[in-house]
Design goal:
Blueprint (H helix, E strand, L loop, with lengths): L1 E9 L5 E8 L10 E3 L12 E3 L6 H5 L13 E5 L19 H13 L4 E4 L4 H8 L5 E4 L4 E3 L6 E3 L7 H13 L4 E5 L2 E5 L7 H12 L6 E6 L2 E6 L4 H8 L9 E6 L5 H9 L3 E4 L7 H11 L14
Parallel strand pairs: 5-6, 5-14, 6-7, 14-15
Antiparallel strand pairs: 1-2, 2-3, 3-4, 7-8, 8-9, 10-11, 11-13, 12-13
Helix pairs in contact: 2-8, 6-7
This protein binds magnesium ion.
Magnesium ion (MG) binds next to loops.
Length: 312
């Protein structure tokens, strides 16, 4: 039985791709992501299913190296971005809405994966806690700078240089001169938001380069959604994936990362490098709602979940 999530998504290559769900079959522990390309329906039923896994989303972008991978839930770990992935992007970071079913889905997912559920976000760990409480087992905040490996555990912070205070002062003056832009301070760096003034994009980028370039490879400029982020180099979401996967309950599992932003590509690459896979919204899932539906379909309500190391 195929659980279909009805959504059409344009690919970079221009193909329309319809997303399918996981193949539940005789066990809801199968983790298979299925896409079918309408113009390639070549089998006898007129439907050609392509199962992509190990190198998505790059595979779906290039159309190459589509591979099939069978991933039982008791062997995978879910590492998920928050904004734009589990919840829709909102006008301000404070105004995102956690869909009522999301907490329940995440709880079921954590149960089904023997606690191997982490959130990896650009937000602080505290902010993720405010939205999700103790549901994720581990939380990596600030793009991997701050990591809490288990509920109630200490937040470990990467030792990083701080941006020079004159950059911050100049950034404050800069956003003041472009109404609609906004400066967000972060530990280790800051973000120049231009969602409210898209015409300022190039000017803000020029300023960021003027600060960062003379510093060699100590800091780098990260493109984000309608924003430039200046942050210490070397610590990113891929680093967070690698670090989390070293310890229980993640170690020994295959990481499945889902994100929506350029900053998530590092994590997708890390997940693939560690034998897992990565998906990106809107390439592999058109919206957070479709991702939530897919996650929910992996761990249906009312079915007994299988914790790590136990029998069905
Ligand atoms: Mg995001």
């Amino acid at each position: 039985m195929w659980h279909t999530l009805p959504a059409e998504v344009p690919l970079v290559a221009g193909k329309a791709v319809r997303h399918g769900g996981n193949r539940l079959g005789n066990s809801r522990c199968d983790l298979e992501w299925v896409q079918w390309l309408p113009e390639e329906r070549t089998d006898e039923q007129g439907r050609f299913f392509t199962v992509i896994a190990s190198n998505s989303p790059s595979a779906s972008r290039t159309g190459s190296s589509l591979t099939r991978m069978h991933m039982p839930l008791d062997q995978v770990a879910f590492l998920l971005d928050f904004d734009g992935t589990l919840v829709d992007i909102a006008p301000t970071p404070e105004s995102v809405i956690v869909a009522p079913e999301l907490k329940d889905v995440l709880r079921r997912l954590r149960d089904a994966t023997g606690n191997a559920l982490a959130i990896i976000s650009g937000r602080s760990v505290d902010q993720i806690d405010a939205f999700l409480g103790d549901i994720p087992f581990a939380v990596a905040g600030e793009h991997g700078i701050a990591i809490r490996h288990r509920p109630g555990g200490p937040i470990q912070r990467a030792a990083l240089p701080s941006v020079p205070s004159e950059w911050v002062r100049e950034a404050q003056e800069l956003v003041a001169s472009f109404p609609g832009t906004r400066l967000e301070r972060k530990i280790g760096g800051f973000v120049l938001h231009y969602r409210g003034a898209p015409e300022a994009q190039a000017e803000l980028r020029r300023a960021a380069e003027a600060w960062v370039k003379p510093e060699g490879d100590k800091f780098h400029i990260q493109a984000a959604k309608m924003a430039w982020e200046i942050r210490p180099a070397g610590v990113d979401k891929g680093y967070a994936v690698s670090l989390l996967m070293e310890d229980a309950p993640f170690a020994g599992r295959k990481p499945v990362f889902v994100g929506d932003d350029v900053t998530d590509e590092d994590a997708i690459k890390a997940a693939i490098r560690l034998g897992g896979t990565g998906f990106r919204i809107p390439i592999d899932f058109p919206t957070p709602a479709v991702l939530r539906a897919w996650l929910s379909s992996l761990v249906p309500v009312g079915e007994k979940t299988i914790a790590a190391g136990t029998e069905a």
